[in-house]
Predict the structure.
Amino acid sequence: MTNSIVILAAGQGKRMYSNLPKVLHPLAGKPMLERVIETCLSLKMDNIFSIIGCKATEIKKTLGKYPVTWIEQKEQLGTGHAVLQALPAIPEHHRVLILYGDVPLISQSTLESFMAETPINALGIITAELPDPTGFGRIIRNPSHNIIKIIEEKEATPKQKCIQEINSGIYFVSAAFLNQTLPTLTNQNTQQEYYLTDIIEKAVKQKLEITSFQPTHYQEILGINDHIQQAALERFYQEQQAIKYLQQGATLADPMRFDVRGNLKIGKDVYIDINTIFEGDVTIGDHCVIGPNTFLRNVFLDNYIEIKANSYIENATIESHAIIGPFARIRGETHIANHAEIGNFIEIKNSSIGAYSKVHHVGYIGDSELGSTVNIGAGTITCNYDGAHKHKTLIGNDVFIGSNTELVAPVTIGEGATIGAGSTITRDVPPNQLAISRIKQSIIPNWQRKKKKET
Ligand code: UD1
Ligand code: MG
């Protein structure tokens, strides 16, 4: 039997108090609906439909690259009405997995087990016992423990509100059953909505078997309706990430102050200090030390690298034994070769730094290629921009650049050359030569500094 997925995502998300559609709010750096779609893709089902309504154009624009059929629900008349919108597109012989766009942490493995354990001719539903079930639909069971009804919080009696088993809203059932029952739903309830939950009683009437499934972590099925729930799920997610890396052998100074918002790979014997953020694709090799308050986005670190405190590194490849920071900013496809040292208050953009080269104190290296064993003095700046175009600075092996030098690009400094401190270099310097462009020092005899008159 083949399957379709319907993701409900048409709701407004009023409680987010935001112009951004709720399902585009991020969890660990990614829109929550995108997380659900990626999980769906990993399930390898036949069709993915997403019901959208509120700010549909923005959602389609952001997530349009995914193979999802977007179906608009013009008016949000309830979860039952939402699923009904997708039915004409779903073949009658399919089974349908119903998910929510604002329940971002539902996992592939939970859904796979849930579907595998739902018998073919049954209605499967994911439920969970929550410490605080407030706000959720409650699962009503008969004395034989069979599910007979779901009651919404707003309709529940005080006794029913004490039930801790809740409806996740995730179901797996045949399209044929939905075709039969959804058109017969009514909206005679406190919210005047067509409740999808009413299909339970219809299944009971038809003697369709109803089975339930519990996820390992109940947080997987929690939805995000406001920023408090968003923050709580973010923490849960980050805690899970931290546990994963600790289990793999990383040392985290504080698992609660470690955030992964992408794909992070960590090698052996890595130490990660507090307040570290990893975005995009980050690889950390063996024996690396990541200092506190560090941000890494799309970075490849080889082995034995030390990133010192307060460094911001994106789109860079760094080879073994390099030392970066503290307070370094590296960006724009930069390559740093082995044993190079980049010190404090240095910005490096779109450049390559050769092996054993040093750029230690305060400066800007942009659009440059540095050979190996180059020494760049404090306060050196590459003037790569003429107001209209960017130009390259090429520095050969073993060059020594004195402090406070301006290298006006395009310019080439030949291998072994030396630049005197305080120079403004506008022309190429041949190999092994000394270039100085600073004004000669003069001494003015008998000069006296002015003094304030004493009053
Ligand atoms: C729903 C369930 C409740 C369950 C809870 C789990 C119903 C009637 N109730 O309640 O039993 O415990 O989810 O989180 O189903 N949506 C649409 N179109 C609509 C209405 C909703 O696409 O017309 C989407 C929303 O965007 C959201 C999802 O459906 O992603 C759930 O809707 P919501 O209004 O949040 O339902 P709950 O009241 O939370
Ligand atoms: Mg909800």
